[in-house]
């Protein structure tokens, strides 16, 4: 990693670590405001034109797009009781769709658990995945990634009164049972710090939160911003350990080798950062419990 990139990653991680809970209400799932007046609306391009034969031309012409995301992650991807999709991932997808001329109500949302993301893309069940999707070499063998559009770091969530677990190195000594999502990067990384029998896996992190609440596990691990959403929903029952131990760049997953679509998404993200749309999307979602607005990370080269 080049030193300039490392500096930027460190800065973004520092901003992420500055996330704190605010008075948006314990247990609230309405991240976009009670009245809806501060609801973010991604701009929609009028009559955009794209080179024939590209993914952009196909999607723009059909006027719809299918997006894979999470349905159970407050602040990033959450399906509300009224069916409304909320979160930063959701708004990133809406920004991309809008640049294609596709309004928010023409997006078909598909619940995409961590273990299913590559398969959904390969099978053509979704046009792209925006789902706290960490870019790594193993996944890049099967799909292509645009972005990253956000940099997170893996952390631990425990009960609010837990003083024994102070970071990943304390887990094995404590004999802690740790929960994560099946097929996720965090579920693999945490194996360095615990005995294999103490790893509990579910398809979604909400089940991990339930297991922590009922004492079936001692900690939940995934990216810090995902955990912050669960902490915010817990009504004071959980806390974040705040000892991140990885770098997790979130990317937009697309069909392997679709360079033109990747470059289009990267250009869209760059424009959103420059015109303030990226910032507004953050402030309307994860920014509800954050003191800092992250900068768009350095984008990878499409290949």
From TrEMBL:
<comment type="similarity">
    <text>Belongs to the bacterial solute-binding protein 3 family.</text>
</comment>
<dbReference type="GO" id="GO:0030288">
    <property type="term" value="C:outer membrane-bounded periplasmic space"/>
</dbReference>
<dbReference type="InterPro" id="IPR051455">
    <property type="entry name" value="Bact_solute-bind_prot3"/>
</dbReference>
<feature type="signal peptide">
    <location>
        <begin position="1"/>
        <end position="25"/>
    </location>
</feature>
<feature type="domain" description="Solute-binding protein family 3/N-terminal">
    <location>
        <begin position="64"/>
        <end position="289"/>
    </location>
</feature>
<dbReference type="InterPro" id="IPR001638">
    <property type="entry name" value="Solute-binding_3/MltF_N"/>
</dbReference>
<feature type="region of interest" description="Disordered">
    <location>
        <begin position="29"/>
        <end position="56"/>
    </location>
</feature>
<protein>
    <submittedName>
        <fullName>Glutamate transport system substrate-binding protein</fullName>
    </submittedName>
</protein>
<dbReference type="Pfam" id="PF00497">
    <property type="entry name" value="SBP_bac_3"/>
</dbReference>
<dbReference type="GO" id="GO:0005576">
    <property type="term" value="C:extracellular region"/>
</dbReference>
<dbReference type="GO" id="GO:0006865">
    <property type="term" value="P:amino acid transport"/>
</dbReference>
<keyword id="KW-0732">Signal</keyword>
<keyword id="KW-0813">Transport</keyword>
């Amino acid at each position: 990693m080049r030193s300039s990139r490392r500096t930027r990653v460190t800065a973004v991680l520092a901003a992420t670590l500055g996330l704190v809970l605010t008075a948006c209400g314990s247990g609230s799932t309405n991240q976009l405001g009670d009245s809806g007046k501060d609801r973010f609306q991604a701009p929609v391009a009028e009559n955009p034109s794209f080179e024939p034969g590209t993914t952009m031309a196909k999607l723009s012409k059909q006027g719809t797009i299918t997006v894979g995301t999470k349905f159970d992650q407050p602040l990033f991807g959450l399906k509300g009781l009224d069916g409304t999709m909320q979160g930063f991932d959701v708004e990133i997808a809406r920004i991309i769709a809008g640049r294609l001329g596709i309004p928010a109500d023409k997006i078909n949302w598909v619940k995409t658990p961590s273990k299913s993301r590559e398969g959904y893309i390969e099978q053509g069940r979704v046009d792209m995945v925006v789902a706290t999707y960490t870019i790594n070499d193993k996944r890049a063998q099967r799909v292509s990634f645009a972005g990253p559009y956000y940099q997170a770091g893996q952390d631990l969530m425990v009960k609010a009164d837990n003083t024994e677990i102070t970071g990943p190195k304390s887990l094995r000594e404590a004999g802690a049972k740790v929960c994560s999502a099946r097929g996720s990067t965090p579920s693999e990384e945490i194996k360095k710090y615990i005995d294999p029998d103490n790893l509990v896996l579910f398809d979604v992190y909400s089940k991990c939160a339930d297991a922590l609440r009922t004492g079936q596990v001692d900690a939940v691990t995934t990216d810090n911003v995902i955990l912050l959403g669960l902490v915010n929903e817990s009504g004071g029952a959980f806390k974040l350990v705040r000892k991140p131990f990885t770098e997790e760049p979130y990317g937009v997953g697309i069909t392997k080798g679709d360079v033109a679509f990747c470059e289009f998404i990267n250009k869209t993200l760059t424009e959103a950062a420059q015109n303030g749309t990226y910032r507004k999307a953050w402030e309307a979602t994860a920014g509800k419990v954050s003191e800092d607005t992250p900068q768009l990370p350095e984008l990878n080269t499409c290949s």
